[in-house]
Design goal:
InterPro entries: Ribosomal_uS15 (IPR000589), Ribosomal_uS15_bac-type (IPR005290), uS15_NS1_RNA-bd_sf (IPR009068). By secondary structure, the chain is mainly alpha-helical. The protein has a domain at 21-80: Helix Hairpins, CATH 1.10.287.10. It is 69% helix and 0% strand. It has helices at 12-17, 22-42, 47-70, 72-82. It is elongated, with a radius of gyration of 14 Å. It starts with 11 loop residues before the first helix and ends in an 8-residue tail after the last helix.
Length: 90
C-alpha cells in the first residue's frame, strides 16, 4: 500500500485557518479515497475496505452537492483542482 499519496491542494496556512471548511474536508476524503483505491488494487477481496470506500465516497458526494448548491464558483474550482468528475445527480 502506498502511504504517501497526498494531494498538496491547499497551502499550510489555509489548513491551519479553517480545517472544517468544505474544501478541506473534500481534500481529505479524496486523499483517503485514493489511498483505499490503491489498497483495493492489491487486495481485491477486502470487502470491509470496499464498504469503507463506499461510505467515504457518499460523504464526499454529499459535501460536493452542498457546495454546488451554495457556491458554484468554489465548487467548479475545487473540482478542477482535485481532478474529480462532476456529478450527474445533484
Amino acid at each position: 500500500m502506498v502511504k504517501n499519496l497526498f494531494l498538496p491542494g491547499f497551502s499550510q496556512e489555509k489548513k491551519e485557518k479553517n480545517p472544517g471548511s468544505v474544501e478541506f474536508q473534500v481534500l481529505n476524503f479524496t486523499n483517503k479515497i485514493r489511498r483505499l483505491t490503491a489498497h483495493l488494487e492489491l487486495h481485491r477481496k477486502d470487502y470491509l475496505s470496499q464498504r469503507g470506500l463506499q461510505k467515504i465516497l457518499g460523504k464526499r458526494q454529499r459535501l460536493l452537492s452542498y457546495l454546488s448548491n451554495k457556491n458554484r464558483i468554489r465548487y467548479n474550482k475545487l473540482i478542477n483542482q482535485l481532478d474529480i468528475r462532476e456529478s450527474i445527480i445533484r
